[in-house]
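Q: A reviewer asked whether we had any structural model of the full assembly, not just the individual parts. We don't, so I'm hoping you can provide one. Inputs are below.
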Amino acid sequence: MSSITATGTIPAAEPAEKNYLNVTTTFKSWALTHDHKRIGVMYLVTIAIFFAVGSLMAGLIRAELTSPTGNFLESETYNKVFTAHGVIMIFWVLLAAVPGILGNFVIPLMIGARDVAFPRLNLLSYYFFVGGGLLAIAAVLSGGVDTGWTFYVPYASLYSNSQVGLAVTGAFLAGFSSIFTAVNFIVTVHKMRAPGMTWFRLPLFIWSAYATSLIVVLGTPVVAITLMMMLAERTLHIGFFSPELGGDPVLFQHLFWFYSHPAVYIMILPSFGVQSELLAAFSRKRVFGYHFVAFSSLAIAVLGFLVWGHHMFVSSQSMYQGVVFSLITFLIAVPTAVKIFNWTSTIYKGTVRLHAPMIYAISFMGLFIIGGLTGLYLSTMSTDIHLTNTYFVVAHFHYVMVGGAITGLLGGIHYWWPKMFGKMYPDRLAQITAIIVFLGFNLTFFPQFIVGWLGMPRRYHYYYLEPQFQPYNIMSSMGASILGLGFLITGGYLIWSLKFGAKATSNPWGAHGLEWTIPSPPDLHNFPTTPIVTDDVYDYEALDAAGLSGGVVAPQGVS
Amino acid sequence: MAATGAHADEHLEHGEHEGPLHEQYEDIDQQNESYIVGMWAFLVTEVMFFGALFVTYVLYRTRYQHDFWVSHLETNTLLGGINTTVLLTSSLTVALAVRAAMLKNRTGVILGLIPTLMGAVTFLVIKYFEYAEKFAHNHYPGPTFIPPSGAAKGPSQIFFSMYFGMTGLHGIHVLIGIIVIGALLYLWYKKRPVVTEDYVPTEMVGLYWHFVDLVWIFLFPLYYLIPK
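A: Here is a predicted structure for the entire assembly that you could use as a starting point for your response.
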């Protein structure tokens, strides 16, 4: 690519500036760091590894399903593979990715703080995350878990003869990791803002991270104690849920989904925030309806706690309960649609630049709209009865989680990569990869809507009684290969850019915000003196008028 | 929030609070407010943590009224009552310690924390005897469980699961409290500026201990005093 040759001209003997990456270089200085930026980078590396493991499991699933009789996995092994895929991707990728990587890195920079409020707690949170993840990997390596990521009782507590204990303890630690991060973010946003950084001058990413943290603080402890009760039942026979011990298994489902439905908002809300940043920066406009977008995050956080019963329409939950949960679930579509409409209006008459992050932002809109609207099929009780446990659910979930959360993560990483590492990646290659990811994703998951609508159940590794499902599954597996290729290319050029990428200026995108006023990569202490904020958020007009757009028709280092 | 440049001046006051002030904060007030907000956020997570257990209790209590009542006769109201008194007293002494910390009265803090610590230990010792009584009668859940006479096996086992689960989790919190109060006492004894110059760490420990106390105030009537 032309952009690659352009980067060969960096003078070799440039004196190294001191920044947070090279101010100290020992292993200990990283492992025991209190710096939010380094912790963000550590999350990035760790989550990339977990994402690779989870993707490998997804690859096994897709390879198995290309044949109606199943290709190479036993039923039991298949159960363990999809459980590993679900557990790793949810607890060690989706729940932590955007807050852990981007939140840790940019929140203090965005609000003009030297660090998060509790740096040591932040480091502890990282080690809880890694410790829990290692337990989960140990569970996979020592025989796997076959319960599905939901750990439903009484199967998980009394009958499953697999490594439930290790996996659940790992999930418990990951839960506390996210509680620590959330407490940290709440206090940081409340108390660490620079002078002049009022609540309505906060970038929308902060609002999203704040709403997410509220959900984590209120929801995660519930699932933590629920998993502990399940584990007590499994190891000590202290009965809470199993009918054999006098309990009620539906209670487990209620407690589990009380957290695990809000958890999908923990996964998607931070990406909503990234989305607002990207659209403002690459349309060079203030986000349309800033206040509505900000408060819709809080509305989603509140409403998200009132809808868990829609996961239990086919349990023994009463019909009237189901009706109420169904209606409240419809309400969730309102704040979500507020966001989508405001984002669309943000692009309207903006000066749109289609750099890689913006392509991710636009594909986010398309994918999330499909994911969100199919959610309405599932929140309608009458259709959900038929769609329960089919591939329609799988497709819906992946459209919002991969099409939404992961696309937002990729967009955010591409947007802040120059700030994190001070290097530019090849923009043209990144643009093409973003489109490959978009196409591969749709080819993977759109056929699953159809095959699910036709009745293919999830979690089955063969379908020889319905061989007409095969073309859809082959399409899906082909799409997964393309998607995997897209992720590999992304990883490849990002790593490449660390060594060979052009040096990034402090503000390669000409974006607005405190994090773009300091060098890339930033100093250890972020700001030389505490900044005093005097301008409005996303004030691109003032930025352009002051000639501070940095001539960003193309970012520096990209031809 | 104050959108002024006054913060730059406050920057100069750093030296005054060098002991307890961490480098990410502008001044000691910002640090103290952060600590307090963080502590309350943590207590919210604790409320939700116990909340799931209380919801479970409400469900099974409603479903198994009679069996819960029969099973609760096995709990020792006298020991439970003594324990409630002990915990309430320790809450009073920790409150006195926090007040002494605000007044920078080191002797007062130490004289407040020692009875608090003793109360916490006494609580666990009494709890041990209560548990031993249940174990002696095979009232612990598991394959060898024997229900009290007059109670059905399944519901009664749920009662004792909830009893051991909730008082056990509370006991773990008391144990953590002993460690934290002990550490605080040590820091005051050693005159470390992190506590002597700033009352907020002491207040945070106090808040935690009040929370532990509060949980017990709900547990005691739910398990020892439930009416028919």
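A: Points you may want to mention in the reply: Chain B touches chain A through 49 residues (CB under 8 Å). The two ends of chain B are 54 Å apart (CA to CA).
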